[in-house]
Design goal:
alpha+beta, Glutaredoxin
């Protein structure tokens, strides 16, 4: 790997492994920019972060190209304190969602399945909910069997602390943080199970 982020499409049916387009340091015009739930993404923020936005677009960053570790905190819907820095030493999947977002509902079974498999391998999971009060969030989690915690973030403080890695309009978005807390991959749009598993396999292999 040369340290550059790699963008690849993750939303097509049957896309199970790496169908890659190399990023040459900025936005890649060949990748279609498709809106997620909240509308079009903030292109300026994405350009400064070296990312491509869009529904189903995946960016994978090799270890030598990763930025400084992220640190974000919050209080879960259950009233527990959450601090991402306390989870360093294990990969962390952070999924940005809200209950009435259609792609969030599409991806929920994949997240449930990946959490069941990879949580047993030590991977941590947290949701960041951008809109909902406790009732709608709990109803969504019960419907889809989501058991990992979520942080309410209606004021955008958690997304702000993610240092431009997630546009407020790009929901759902899933970040994979490595064991040092650095962003190793980002999925903009509904997460595909096989691709999320592949990204996690790569991060887990780094510490093997």
């Amino acid at each position: 790997m040369d340290g550059q982020p790699r963008a690849w499409s993750g939303a097509q049916p049957g896309a199970t492994r790496r169908s890659l387009l190399r990023l040459g340091g900025g936005l890649l015009g060949a990748v279609p920019l498709l809106a997620a739930c909240g509308g079009s993404s903030d292109a300026a923020s994405d350009a400064s972060a070296g990312y491509v936005s869009g529904d189903g677009v995946v960016v994978e960053i090799p270890p030598e190209g990763r930025a400084e570790p992220l640190a974000f905190q919050g209080t879960t819907y259950d009233g527990d304190d959450f601090d991402s820095t306390s989870l360093r030493g294990a990969p962390l999947v952070a999924n940005v969602w809200y209950a009435s977002c259609p792609p969030c509902r599409v991806e929920a079974p994949a997240l449930k399945a990946v959490h069941a498999e990879y949580g047993a391998q030590g991977v941590e999971f947290v949701g960041v909910n951008t809109r909902d009060k406790a009732g709608p969030a709990a109803a969504f989690e019960e419907t889809f069997g989501i058991t990992y915690p979520s942080i309410p973030d209606s004021d955008g403080a958690v997304l702000y602390s993610m240092d431009g890695m997630v546009s407020p309009n790009a929901v759902p978005t899933t970040l994979i943080l490595d064991v040092e807390g650095r962003v190793a991959a980002r999925i903009s749009g509904a997460a595909d199970q096989s691709i999320l598993e592949s990204l996690l396999d790569t991060v887990l292999a780094e510490g093997a």
